[in-house]
Design brief:
Four copies of one chain form a homotetramer.
Chain A (H helix, E strand, L loop, with lengths): L17 H7 L1 H21 L5 H13 L4 H11 L3 H12 L13 H37 L4 E6 L2 E7 H26 L18 H12 L13 H27 L7 E2 L16 H22 L9 H30 L2 E2 L1 H9 L7 H8 L5 H18 L3 H8 L6 H4 L9 H11 L4
Antiparallel strand pairs in A: 1-2, 3-4
């Protein structure tokens, strides 16, 4: 089946990501649960709860066992969870002697949640390395374009000159923060789930905490203060991170679409997208996916947070809602990171067009520059009013703003020098440096 | 791959629905697009745009052609849409003579959107018939339980007596409205998309509207006033309907979970859900899925509405966002309808427990009844105050409210008669009849 | 207080709407509840439940009573609802004799929900008339600009020629559907809430349905099949409508922002927005509000749908959630309708700039036209390939596409005629007419 | 005006919070902006950009100036932002000599965003102290109830015994993490916004970074790497935190509602909520608000994340969307923290009812205990099967599970000892200690 573009073959390379999907699909879920059952047996042997030999046998079998997802479907439909059916399969596979020691004292949620954490750890490793690569690519481009002058645009209007390097540095800055955030989130997220039937570990007598610690060590996960069966803030926080990352990439994508418009034409980013009827088209499909994936994740984020208030000691509703949303978010963010890197590494920048667009406005983009230059010779409100009137005249007449101003005032301003956008870039370079430094450059 | 529980085998019978997934998966999408290309050729022949023989040949080939989704993946990743690659495959399949007439004058979005509409039509047929079956099942149960007295609960507290039949009638009432709504939505949704490159039908010269009408007739779809490439209110309305339906089912599911609590125990609804460690458990997993699917759809609904403001004449962002959300919503609602019917048809009602719970409160649930009975003999605020004080005494002492009241007042009230909850059901029966009548029962 | 821009003075004319806020503020809520209490008394007198004289007195007093919202705050905080405190005030105001008959047999939710319906009716009347006015304004502009040729843009790229009239007609089309939808929604929404304590009308003995009908008649509302205390689909449907309307306006706003970009400059729509530092700026702030309000409503819509699955016979959670969301949505949509009309009526269109942008691309926008012209003389795939190559050459060389094509083929095409964008508009006019007809024009 | 229950008087003490609203209303917004203008003048004097005397005068006037929000409404509606009108008022107030130096080199967004950060800082201080108080209250209750035995409930069914202390410790655990998270978020959020017209600080010549640093010092805010005009991850992260906190409180509220049900009756939490018609009712309105506010925030969270992908150097759409959502979230979380503390501090626990509910199930809740006791004498799957059969018999016959088991097996189990729920609490105490330790108790 392939209901969502995140599953299936058709959109696999556009919107999905095979590497990440492989961490979340049926097979990966079964594999992770078996891994937890294996580790549980070993930990319980270490704590003296079950016999050593049985534990080793269970671990060995569990780590090799292949279970067809379809074989668990009926059990899952009945129980709402795949664990009872999976435990039954595992018991059959380990044979009569070891069977009693399988899944000892655990509850299904211990297995499913810990299995999820294992898969999230793998997914986060992939995402972290993609994030690093994207940061590097952006840092390279920011450096490369620190001298590429272009129009800054505020509220869709040309505002003042800026550089493409500064724009890229602004794209980069939040990604550095996302890297920091991920480091903070990991210890709260990569935590064992283990509480037994309802969180007291009662089936393990007085050895509950000891098994909990041994199991966490076995799986290289942190030990929680207590089971988090219905305390899902860790997952909500992860979802927030995934959505923030994709949102920051959505901003990049949105900017690329705007810069690639026919009438702007300053950047081409992965624009291979052809039309079935218009031979001239080169659509910014990669950039568009970044915005779409961002909006998708923002929607799912709300559902993950709606899933946080889970009832009592286990809640089938909120828990199920997580399954329906969180894996998709992880893949969407992963696909966005991959697409973003491809786009950034293959940027084609038309510096001449940037310059041309900047100069097409008869100098209006330098209105602020003119008003501050005049403010050296008259009160600033007066300067602003003078420039505002000159802007209107320039727009109406098609004459250059500086020519209009020169005619309107005899303030001793160097009007020729003011015509150069590259002379009105303020601290653009210093700001780029500040970001590059945080990104780990020089 | 199987990222989402709506895809894959593991959760197929719990959260997903094979019959509906089959309307939306890669294969169905390709099939629907080929169907549109076939109909387009025939319509254009009818309008004299392309040769009749070519059209018939294209239609015949397109209707039989099997295309492996993976074969279109590279093209889809490049173009953002599968159509150019699909058209190429179709051209190859029809051979050199007819190839030029394939996809004549259409744009990719015409094919994808119309293909989606065809698939939605099939999905809605399934959902409509499930809705009918559920309405019938609820009507049967409302009728069967019109005499089953139980406690109504407002804000989690026992309020007054009611009947289980009236509760079921209340579950049923919105479903009748959803059926009406669906009838209203269909003509706005089941509409051809056909506008050519950017909505003017220019490639068809003066035959655009004629082809549009012929194509709509061929596919048995309505003709839109003009192409709706970036006017997506029809899809947003559908998403709203899907979410409303699943939300109404979520209310049923939520009630069933509450009624099935150990301490309430009035109803068991499909409670086969076993635990991996607690032998006594029978979890209400089916009912829980209804709530989870409702909350999932409500989250996706926001994303679909976020996709409505699409830019200019075609918007890759919003359009992609629809693909990521709408099919999942359709399947979630379909699964919820199926699960709800199973639950309703297999309800096990414990009328004795209902009665027991009603009577466990020392008559407090009849406080309103007592206050209105007293109001015949004293001002109602005074009656209310008297009953309120008696409630406190009854709660503290464990005596029956009517006994307490009898001791506190000599108002000539028939306290014995007031003890019977079945005597304080007001218009429950008439209200059930009103709903059943709207459901088509008489 | 003024926490939200929808409240308060600061943003009142930008994002909010005094006329609509006045339907939803504290005072309006109290007024509507008193109106329901008045009507209830009259209806119950008519049904013989309470004395005629008391009913008339209650109605008269209730309709004039002014209650300071702050006076109900403590009661509301205690009870979760303002009704008990309000009933107490009303009882005090009517005096000892009539006091017992106030609020007879009703539950708080009857009063609050019916009061909300009354306020929604007033709000929908305002919105309906704004929608009509906007439809008229768009129809006028579509008519006025049916000959204004411009570039259609798909996926942010110039696609083919179109007309501004057709673009406006596309903006208009969904609004006509929203008008239809509103007509369908009204009878499901403008419905009395009346069920007594828990929906059985038990306190009214055998007169429940009679009072229900009389009360609905008194308030000119429809009679529901049964109380809808926890069946909230009507409100969810309304929220969907509000969000759809604002989303369609968000699409208009988004297009206006794009058309107003410095590099496009084809339309100015209410662009008074000044900058505190850039004298030349004229920001499209009105258009931006349309997109912001659309995204706001889409987010709230999810919350309203999350509120639908309400527990049992009354649910404080979902009900409260409606109060937090629905009124804001109504005001946001109302403000959007007002802002949209202002924008549309004051559109300044630069037809020369439209033409200029169209022609700036060396004829690339006519690539489809050229390919269909050539397809009369060679197989269409061959024609497409030829045009594609010519596009690349034209883009690289800066020569006009038709010149390049003329040099590359001796197919007998009238290349001069093909240069005229106005000759490649297909059925634009006929499509505009189809929409105008549905809008009620001739 | 008072559109939302978060504004206005009616719901002020139920759903809103005067202390927090006062940080976000019109007056607070104006005050914060004037504070920023004051600090800007001082910082620019320090950097030698404007004269010292003018700066001091501006600062003094700005800090005292009272501006009626309504006086800025027209300007705000025109410009989309209140800053130009506010700057004009401030210029008028400082008089002709200093007027030119007001708002020197800043852009409106610098003032609005920094003003927001100042207000968020104050709001977070309030929330942090409420969070501390709530943590302390929960720690007290967890300690107090570590010996209060009750039924754990998973998926709405009694599962095994637990203690109320452990349940409270589980409520507490995420709040400790939220405190950690807040500490991590602060340095990323409490950051100056300062970039001038489009983020280059060009109007300040070579003194941009120096002014930026001086201004940050003046306001005791961190210096960003570069302006974050369209990099809104800090606000999205805050929104996530606000939603996580309210979601964790929503979980507490939801549990309290369930525990307060008539049929459960184990806890009363602030249950003053009266009914207008049912004298016996005591509704858990405070607990319900926690769930409602959680669901409200989760919905708004999506909107805040939708606002992150902001276009180019300033985006009126996303920015406006933040204003519509973020302050409401801050107040909703603040109100939830206050309500939660009231509820926790006033918990009335009915330990006897807890014990009674635990024992009402004929020992079924000890089925896991029995199966592990038997597993000492037979393979565990066999033990589980035996117990499962015994559970069915106990449920059907009404006999105690241990009696049934004793009759079914001669395994040497101490059946009498197994009847005591307090003997099957596993590591509940140790787990409580782990949480209390993290909460700072020792």
């Amino acid at each position: 089946m392939s209901l969502s573009p995140l599953d299936g073959a058709l959109y696999a390379d556009l919107l999905s990501d095979a590497e990440l999907v492989a961490r979340f699909d049926d097979a990966a879920q079964i594999r992770a649960m078996l891994e937890v059952e294996a580790a549980l047996a070993l930990a319980e042997a270490k704590a003296g709860v079950i016999p050593d030999a049985a534990a080793k046998h269970i671990a060995k079998v569990a780590r090799k066992l292949e279970i067809d997802p379809a074989a668990l479907a009926a059990g899952t439909a009945k129980d709402g969870i795949p664990v009872p059916a999976l435990v039954e399969e595992l018991r059959r596979a380990v044979g009569e002697d070891s069977a009693p020691y399988v899944h000892w004292g655990a509850t299904s949620q211990d297995i499913i949640d810990t299995g999820l954490v294992l898969r999230l750890r793998a997914a986060l490793d992939i995402q972290a390395s993609r994030l690093d690569a994207l940061i590097a690519a952006l840092a390279d481009q920011a450096e490369a374009h620190r001298g590429t002058v272009m129009a800054a645009r505020t509220r869709a209007q040309q505002a003042t000159p800026t550089t493409f390097g500064l724009k890229i540095a602004a794209w980069l800055a939040p990604l550095i923060r996302h890297r920091e955030r991920l480091a903070e989130i990991r210890p709260r997220l990569l935590v064992l789930q283990f509480g037994g039937a309802s969180g007291t570990l009662a089936a393990l007598g007085d050895k509950g905490v000891r098994v909990m610690e041994a199991l966490a060590a076995e799986l290289d996960l942190a030990v929680p203060p207590l089971p988090w069966h219905t305390q899902r803030d860790g997952l909500a926080e992860l979802a927030g991170w995934l959505s923030m990352v994709s949102a920051s990439l959505g901003k990049i994508g949105g900017d690329l679409v705007l810069l690639a418009q026919s009438e702007v034409g300053e950047v081409r980013a992965g624009q291979a997208g052809g039309s079935s009827t218009m031979p001239q088209k080169a659509n910014p499909v990669g950039a568009e996916t970044l915005v779409a994936l961002a909006r998708f994740n923002a929607g799912l984020l709300a559902a993950v947070h709606q899933a946080v208030p889970q009832a009592q000691e286990r809640d089938g509703v909120g828990w199920t809602l997580e399954w329906l949303t969180l894996p998709q978010m992880a893949v969407a963010t992963g696909a966005a990171l991959r697409n973003a890197r491809t786009l950034i590494e293959s940027l084609e920048v038309d510096a001449a067009r940037m310059r041309g667009n900047l100069e097409a406005g008869n100098g209006l983009i330098l209105a602020e520059a003119a008003s501050f230059a005049l403010a050296a010779h008259m009160p600033r409100p007066e300067a602003q009013a003078l420039v505002k009137a000159a802007c209107a005249e320039a727009a109406a007449s098609g004459r250059h703003l500086m020519d209009v101003l020169e005619a309107r005032t005899d303030a001793p301003v160097d009007w020729q020098a003011l015509r150069d956008p590259a002379a009105y870039l303020g601290d653009a370079d210093a700001l780029i440096d500040r970001v590059l430094k945080r990104a780990g450059r020089n």
